[in-house]
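Can't paste images in this forum, so I'm doing it all in text. The chain is below; anyone willing to post the predicted structure tokens underneath?
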Amino acid sequence: DVFKIIWERERRADGKITEGRIIAAQYDGKEAKSTAIFFDDDWWEIGGKSMRKQFLRAPLSYRRISSYYSLKRFHPILRYWRPHKGIDYAAQIGTPVSAVGDGVVTYCGWKRDYGRFIEIRHNSTYSTTYGHLLRYAKGIRKGKRVKQGDVIGKVGSSGLSTGPHLDFRIKRWGKFVNFLKLKFPPAKKIKKKYRKKFNKEKKMRLTQLATLSSETEIPQKIKSYEEIIELTKWEK
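Text version of the structure:
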């Protein structure tokens, strides 16, 4: 497997060199080859399609799904059957929880059985909720704008809970739906007015990637080659 990365470096006034943004990455393996170009605050594949989906596949790194969306689930504490219109992600206490998409925090506080709870409105169609949190991330409050992937809190067991997990739910037009069965719109494409500028940027980055020699150095912010593969992945 071959991995290539281009990233920025900045020389400070004191002479020290600091790492900046990753601006291009490429993975060439036995089963696949993929390239990511950073342009206009987003990641794009070379055909001009955004590599960022409308929502993350999950709001955290989890051990397992301990409870699925169901209209009839036996509650382990209350001991009776009732709907569970969300996904319970079992995870270690303190695991970072991320916003699955861009949006505005519409609720941040204690909410009965959900304990420490956050709700984010993403657009006129979708909103998501995050329950049983241990704590909120610094600066998270009602009215705060968040970006996809921003950490908004930590996994906990507050409220009516049997152990550390995240109760994650999504609303479509105000009604809870099964997140795991939703089909979202395809990734956006480069706007026509930016196409020429993007093509120029792409040509430059591809030339740079092609001329990179074999090196073992990787940016400090990338802890493993697996992160490069993840960076350059997208769904077909």
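The chain has two domains: 2-53+187-231, 64-179. The chain has a mean pLDDT of 84.
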